[in-house]
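Q: Here's a chain of 272 amino acids. Please give me its 3D structure as tokens.
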Amino acid sequence: PSWRPRPPAPSAAIAALVQPALVASGGVVRAMSGDSAPTAETLLFVDIDGVLNVGIRDGGRAPLLFDHESVRSAHRLWPVRVGHRERSSIERIMSVYNHRQEDGERFSELVSTSPNQFSPELVRRFAQIVAASGWRPSGDGQAAPGHVRVVLTSTWRAPHHRARLRRLELAVAEQLRGLDGGSAPSSFKFDCCTQMQEDRQPEGRLTSIGNFLADFCKQRSAPLGPLSVLVLDDFYNRPLDGWRCGARQVWSEMDAEKYLRDRLAPACDARG
């Protein structure tokens, strides 16, 4: 088959991979776009694999990237799948492609393009979140200091992903330009990223976000207003089963939020 696996990552359940990216029409955006003090700042942490694309669990192997190339291959091989050595992969891809969620949305709407490895539809929803957050670029395409910063947590922050990441930024910018009203920014670039070295486990990802928050609070300039934090990350699609972050164990979303709050300097007034 000609489909390509997604860049190496732990196996991922389909629904959990897509769900973090489905918040564009939900309460998250309303919370971010609500009234706040002029000095309020927002940090938006964003993963890519599992948030802006869909992966399909494939037994003990690396997850399959749900893109046009893999779908075309699965369609072509479907009539001869019985007895084919990749039968399981073929059937998994087609099952996802034909799956309809309770709200009527089909996963076929979330297919990634090749070779970009991101879903145009999920990028569109992410652009809605960026616009609702109040993010605005400065002259070089990055956010003006003191307001909203979009922080990349994905493995795409590695130098060898630079070209692909730039294509993603251009796609987000195109979606921003197309939003109704014409008030959204017309360019986009991630403002910064978390530390390059992290344990590629959910504990490592959460810790790296916590490290970023701690350093950010130390560098904030007065006057200090409230800090809003939104995390869009699938944490390698691992269940909350007692992740150990230092002396802390994380068993729930509330535990994860408390861990991040506790990493903030006392001067930071954080809102989840």
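Q: Can you summarize the key feature?
A: Residues 17 and 50 are 4 Å apart (CA to CA).
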